[in-house]
Automatic annotation (TrEMBL):
InterPro entries found in the cross-reference section: Competence_ComEA_HhH, Endo/Exo/Phosphatase_dom_1, RuvA_2-like
Keywords: Signal
Gene Ontology cellular-component terms listed: type II protein secretion system complex
Protein name, as recorded: Competence protein ComEA
GO biological process: protein secretion by the type II secretion system
Record organism: Pseudomonas fluorescens
Signal peptide: 1-23
């Protein structure tokens, strides 16, 4: 008899917890959050190019295909050691950056 009562209590507990989770209020983004998201998306439009001489490691990592944290830091370190890039092709001098990565990202890169 006690086991049946205990099982009923456990069942009721789990049932009420699942109903509470399902009935939780849904958060709807505000107009300000939507405007911010649209503005950020416009700022990241594919027409924008990444400046090798001005971009930080986080930007390089986010914007360039095949460039992770280590390669982005290597690009910044090369720039700090050797001065600004004279051309996009000079990126091949950075350790870890090969022709394939350069060709994949050539359209996204510029040197100012």
């Amino acid at each position: 008899m006690r086991n049946g009562f205990l099982y009923s209590l456990v069942f009721a507990l789990f049932t009420s917890a699942s109903i509470a989770a399902i009935a939780a209020p849904v958060t709807v983004p505000t107009v300000e959050e939507k405007v911010t998201a649209v503005t950020e998306a416009a700022a990241r439009s594919p027409n924008d190019k990444v400046d090798l001489n001005g971009a930080d490691a986080a930007t390089l990592q986010k914007q360039l295909s095949g460039v992770g944290e280590a390669k982005a830091k290597a690009i910044v370190a090369y720039r700090e050691t050797n001065g600004p890039f004279a051309s996009v092709d000079e990126l091949l001098e950075v350790k870890g950056i090969g022709k394939a990565i350069l060709d994949r990202n050539r359209e996204k890169l510029e040197v100012n």
